[in-house]
């Protein structure tokens, strides 16, 4: 009888599970086809040109645009179809972040349009259609995510699964295309520096995809061609953020949610002054280091070695501070007794998986550097700084991942914000006595009323007035006893509250400091400061082409890790 009763629900879950499997397989094949096409263009495969790749991406974006328009129209005409919301998905700060990246992406698209106009005589029409389509796609997608990132879809579930997963892998392919284009540009710059420094033992062939015609306006062409590559890091972050938000939407399709009150956690600058000051110092110094590095690297051998030494020393200092801050935060967590929230939450689960998964990119590069230092026969002086740097990168990510994952899984502490200082006026023998009780006295008074007892605050005033006929001595004794009880209770409360508030303040400052440090460490690789290219030791040990392939595969994950960690730490700061 139990099986018969449970069979309808079990049987009803099979179509949805099959739809999830089918849609995921559709998305993976869509991505693999685009990935292979991207790789074929990158290696100059016969019969594959950039126009083929762009045509494929344009087609995918148009299909996603049609699906988003259909979804938006259906949501407007039938508002009651979607009732449930995932309160953890699509946080406001995340939407603001993706909007900022989208605005810069639109600037990038405008640069590409200008670049196409200047070289229109020898460029394929797809290179002009692509940025226009991408701009429309960006505007509509940001609007869609602002309005529907929290939706839990309960109707047309099979169709919606295919639409959402198509959007996820379309953004991943656009991210891949941006990463590859930016990596090829960085690699060409690196090869030019090697030529300047006179490396004759490495075969260097510039991978040039420049148009084979003259520009109509030389000045504008230079601005567009150079500006495009400075904007690519923001475009890359935009697409990876969009794909993660859409993935959470896909996981939420058909999900049953428990309705409970969600506490709003706004960001406040109050109480994090120390963390912000130290973080801003790190951010400012990092920007200065990156500027000097980009100016000095490749000018001469001595200047390049000085630039690398400067970078490693600064990074070692910052990473050591981050490790220390993370250890202090974990020790504070060990001293606290707070339960973890183990409820089902796709957004939180994805955050944890992305932290560990993308950290593997940095770990791969760090272990490669450590192995190169051990195996190399000759060690220039600056390469020894690479050893502590690589070790600290591994340790810092271990500690930071532990801190973030535990922070986002800890249950939020409930605080009675509505408890305020009251002014109690009692009348005793015709005179007005003004008492301003402490926070704890009111708190104890409220708890005592709930248990049926009279709070100590009132025992010495109001209750004493009611028993006035019993004599003044009895009233004075009652007031003295109650005051002693209140003093002991207040002392215990204030000591506990002081310790709790201090711990929270320290954790908030640590989260703010790590947030700014991760933004600081995102800047160097995102804007071309990559010692993994310029160190030279790894290229000698592993070979030029193999090491460059490893760097190009791992670097995008390393860059994304820093931005994702910064976003997670922002959430931790709001939650603490």
UniProtKB/TrEMBL annotation:
GO terms for molecular function: proton channel activity. Pfam families: Otopetrin. InterPro entries: Otopetrin. GO terms for cellular component: plasma membrane. The chain crosses the membrane at residues 26-47, 53-72, 93-117, 129-146, 229-250, 271-295, 311-333, 354-379, 506-528, 540-561. The keyword Transmembrane applies. It is a multi-pass membrane protein. One of its GO terms (biological process) is inner ear morphogenesis. It comes from the Eukaryota. Keywords: Cell membrane, Hydrogen ion transport, Ion channel, Ion transport, Membrane, Transmembrane, Transmembrane helix, Transport. It is found in: Cell membrane. Belongs to the otopetrin family. This is OTOP1 protein. It comes from Podilymbus podiceps (Pied-billed grebe). The lineage of its organism: Eukaryota, Metazoa, Chordata, Craniata, Vertebrata.
